[in-house]
Design a protein that fits this description.
This protein is an all-beta fold. About 0% of the residues lie in helices and about 50% in strands. The strands form 2 sheets. Strands 2, 4, 5, 6, 9, 10 and 11 form a 7-stranded mixed sheet that branches. It has a 4-stranded antiparallel sheet with strand order 1-3-8-7, with no helix packed on it. The radius of gyration is 13 Å and the shape is globular. The protein starts with a strand and ends with a strand.
């Protein structure tokens, strides 16, 4: 069974930091580019960041550029999102996803985790 499991969400004050993790199983991890998306109540799911198959290349949404860092460890089948200088508008459910394409479009991603909640208080 192909599975992605996120962890690390929680409640943090504005200006704080948090790291999300996502562990993959059931498929060859390094065959996929990996992405992070988020969805706030009443909003559509939006792209946050992506990392290429080897981890060499990254892509960020403008809203998080300079504050968030995406990385992966293929030996551990793990994806990470280091989030610094958090803002209340970062509050959302965060999802990791796997894609055979290099893309920021949710429709291009094949497998999804169940999500982890991040709440940033002001």
């Amino acid at each position: 069974e192909k599975q992605l499991v996120e962890s690390g969400g929680g409640l943090v004050q504005a200006g704080g930091s948090l790291r999300l993790s996502c562990v993959a199983s059931g498929f060859r991890f390094d065959d996929y580019a990996m992405g992070w998306f988020r969805q706030a109540p009443g909003n559509e799911r939006e792209f946050v960041a992506a990392v290429s198959w080897s981890g060499k290349n990254t892509l960020y949404a403008d809203q998080v550029k300079g504050r968030f860092t995406v990385s992966r460890d293929n030996a551990k089948n793990a994806l990470y999102l280091q989030m610094n200088s958090l803002k209340p508008e970062d509050t959302a459910v965060y999802y990791c996803a796997a894609s055979t394409r290099w893309s920021d479009a949710a429709n291009d991603y094949d497998y999804w985790g169940q999500g982890t909640q991040l709440t940033v208080s002001s």
